[in-house]
Amino acid sequence: MYAQMVKSTGTLKTREEMDERERAFQDRIDAGEKIEPQDWMPEGYRKTLIRQIGQHAHSEIVGQLPEGNWITRAPTLERKAILLAKVQDEAGHGLYLYCAAETLGVSRDEMTEKLHDGKMKYSSIFNYPTLTWADIGAVGWLVDGAAIMNQVALQRTSYGPYSRAMVRICKEESFHQRQGYSIMMTMAAGTPEQKRMAQDALDRLWYPSLMMFGPSDKDSVHSAQSMAWKIKVSTNDELRQKFVDQTVPQAEYLGLTIPDEKLDWNEAKGGYDFSEPDWQEFHDVLAGNGPCNADRMSARRTAWEDGAWYRDGLVAHANKRAAQRMAAE
Amino acid sequence: MSALCEFALRMGDNTLILGHRVSEWCGHAPVLEEDIALANTALDLIGQTQMWLGLAGEVEGNGRTADHLAYKRDAWDFRNVLLVERPNGDFGQTLMRQFLFDAWHHPMLKWLSENSAEKRVAEIAEKAVREAAYHLERSADLVIRLGDGTDESHRRMQDALAYHWTYTGEMFEADAVDGELADAGVAPDPAAMKPGWDALVGDVLAEATLAVPENDFAHKGGRRGQHAEHLGHILASMQFLPRAYPDARW
Ligand SMILES: [Fe+2]
Ligand SMILES: [Fe+2]
User: Fold this and answer.
1) Going by fewer Cβ within 10 Å, which terminus of chain B is more open, N or C?
2) Cα A108 to Cα A99: distance, rounded to the nearest angstrom
3) Which of A60, A317, A324 to mutate to test the interface with B (most CBs of B within 10 A)?
4) Which of A218, A184, A223, A207 has its CA nearest to residue A280?
């Protein structure tokens, strides 16, 4: 997802192994109460949340780049305006999430530096390029579609500020997915070249979208503690299955073919059987070897470094004004 | 082409090209708040473009839509002032261009919304003027803060001012089209907007501790289709898809 393979700090303890505070904390979570910033929380809970919310925030920010890639080339004024509005929303999501993370005692600047030093990650999906206009449709349809699956579930997460950020974000996400699907509908019903772009976008982005949910549950080492703390509320495989079940009929409606020969309806489980993505590729991308990792990070670092004078200038001005006010009093 | 159509093109091409330039920043701004603000500014400008170019097509009466006008004209038919096609450069250069434009754009829209004898022009201006007021408030505030910030931010803003300065005079140039529009009460005489602009820009620059450049030369040509080298490159990317796939609907 936007937060994949978040390492969770702390091993899962039995009730007997917990001390009194930990037990009371777990009871609150089990009762569905929200944990607020001023409440006591285990250090592992705090650290895991910082990693997860930070990774989610970074994903919103880096996610501006593949879509921003087509703003200047959007084919109509209407599409351009819609894409601008969407990318602006994503930056806004980043802001809500950084604010949520800051309530846990870590600053936005610290998290940004960790991202730039490679110590924090963002979703693997944004290391894939947007090569044609249809990719903008496919990103909205598949990537925002996958993000919604996760974010809707996370509205029930145990940490109050994170949960509330998710509620705000989910309101905007369905518009993102709809605009993407609307591009896909137009492309799939368009000229032969447009149809080719649409199919090609689906071919390239299908498996990377499945990877967004993270590794299979059997290989997902950090899930148990995060689930117990309700930092995670659904497993990777549950969400992936839901996503496939939702998306296959949408692809059929478009007249596009999902690039999976094993895709088949399974009556018994009431869902589709489908091929797993190439997990080696997933690990390569996370390790920095995706098609765009280097470009994405260099774009973000450059923006940050080139902007240093701007940020310093504003701070210096604020200090001067404060000094003037002091002198006047 | 009628004077009214020409006027709508000039207004719409300014917002289209400036909107394009601003949108180039997407994801690359110095702080997250600027990413949001720049996308918002570009979005406002593109929305205004749809209205102005829509009006131009309607007045022309040949069935051309706003998209037609944006995507199917070549550079010599564009009517924007040269200032808005100036490259982004560093953030200071982008910001200064925005401020110098906003300081013209907002009073212009205000006049049109309050006084234009052409109802359709007044209506568009009415919708756009609040956005432009906000753009001006923001850009003026940032020019002040960065001009009077660190030595480096001051130097960068002063350099940016020098870079754009000789491209500001064109906004106040009047030709036969402007004369006709002013006589008909559709639009103000551009030259009449100059004293207000001088005063506003002078105040902001003074507060920003920036010196007003002494060069009063004015580069001209954009408003009659003679552009700098920049516009062709902007159009090459902006118009790529509709040009490469002329039969497609998007
Ligand atoms: Fe988002
Ligand atoms: Fe989104």
Assistant:
1) N
2) 8
3) A317
4) A207
Give me the residues of chain A with pLDDT under 50, please. none
| Model pLDDT, residue A181 | 98
Q: Which residue has the tokens 């993370």?
A: A101
Domains of chain B, residue spans: 3-209+219-243
pLDDT, one tens digit per residue, over A37-65 is 999 999 999 999 999 999 999 999 999 99
pLDDT in tens, B23-54: 999 999 999 999 999 999 999 999 999 999 99
B59 close contact with A: CB closer than 8 A = no
- DSSP letter for each residue of B23-84: HTTTT-SSSHHHHHHHHHHHHHHHHHHHHHHHHHHHHHTSS--HHHHHHH--GGG----GGG
- Predicted pLDDT of residue B22: 98
Smallest Cα distance from B205 to chain A, Å? 15
Residues A75, B241: C-beta atoms closer than 8 Å: yes
ipTM rounded to 2 decimals: 0.97
Tokens read off for B111: 């006049």
Instruction: Please name which ligand lies nearest the alpha carbon of A94.
Output: 1
Give the C-alpha separation, B158 to A7, whole Å.
Answer: 48
- In CATH terms, the fold of domain B3-209+219-243 is Ferritin (1.20.1260)
Name residues 6-45 of chain B within 8 A of A (Cβ). 16, 20, 23-24, 26-36, 39-40, 42-43
What does the pLDDT look like over A182-214, one tens digit per residue?
999 999 999 999 999 999 999 999 999 999 999
Cβ of B248 within 8 Å of Cβ of A312? The answer is no
